[in-house]
Amino acid sequence: MSIALAFDIYGTLIDPHGVVSELQNHVGDRAAEFSRVWREKQLEYTWRRGLMRRYVNFGVCTRQALDYADQLLQTGLDDSAKGALMQAYRVLPAYADVPASLELLKQAGHRLYPFSNGTGDMVSAVLEHARIDQFFEDVISVDSLHTFKPDPAVYHHVVEIADVAPENCWLVSSNGFDVIGAVSAGMKAAWLKRFDGVVFDPWEFKPTQVIRSLDELPGQIS
């Protein structure tokens, strides 16, 4: 039986706060706070634009969230600094558990897909830089649908691209809203609880599996 695994990218395989080192060059000891605001507003903008049906791609959402964080925290970044930070977003690092776990899953015969709000070129660039692009089949981006997670259409699109029954198609994500979206759309989903203190939304939609590290995933997929 063929199992397709669709991996969220930012926050699951790739550390979005890997930009902190570049931020330190521009905002000093406010880098961690800046990164948190930037990430939270980036996601908020995708949700708002999805609901409003006023699509712009993830790169635009990311830049607008950067502008917001700069204004909120009054850090006074110029265009050169913002350009450097946007470039840093294309070379973010993978989490330490990612390469070996993907290797095991690939060896087990599973079909692996990167599945992201990011555009195809953004995803390809960050996966190549992290040296994990060789584990995956086609990049699946919401960009072709002009909407964002957790719109049901994006999860149906994953199942269509993978060409498997929904029950044989898994999402793997550290983002609770993403897991809820996938389960609501009929997929299975593993919630990667990377950090202590993170709480899953108390909704009627629950993850199929909960894991604390990607190392646990090969033994949980069936």
Describe this structure in words.
- The protein has 222 residues and is of the alpha/beta class.
- It has eight helices and six strands.
- A six-stranded parallel sheet has the order 3-2-1-4-5-6.
- Strand 4, helix 8 and strand 5 form a beta-alpha-beta unit.
Name the CATH homologous superfamily of the largest domain. Answer: HAD superfamily/HAD-like
Strand arrangement, largest sheet? 3-2-1-4-5-6
Q: What's the β-strand tally?
A: 6
Q: Tell me the major beta sheet.
A: 6 strands, parallel
Radius of gyration: 17 Å
- Indicate the overall shape: globular
Class derived from helix and strand content? alpha/beta
- Any idea what the CATH architecture of the largest domain is? 3-Layer(aba) Sandwich
CATH first level of the largest domain: Alpha Beta
Query: Unreliable runs, pLDDT <50, ≥5 residues?
Result: none
Taken as a percent bin, the fraction of beta residues is 5-15%
The secondary-structure element order is EHHHHHEHEHEHEE
- Mean pLDDT equals 96
Secondary structure tally, helices = 8
Fraction of helical residues: 40-55%
CATH topology of the largest domain: Rossmann fold
Distance between the termini: 9 Å
Furnish the topology, listing elements before pairings.
Blueprint lengths: L3 E4 L12 H8 L3 H22 L5 H16 L5 H10 L9 H10 L3 E6 L3 H10 L10 E2 L10 H11 L6 E5 L2 H9 L3 E5 L16 E3 L11
Parallel strand pairs: 1-2, 1-4, 2-3, 4-5, 5-6
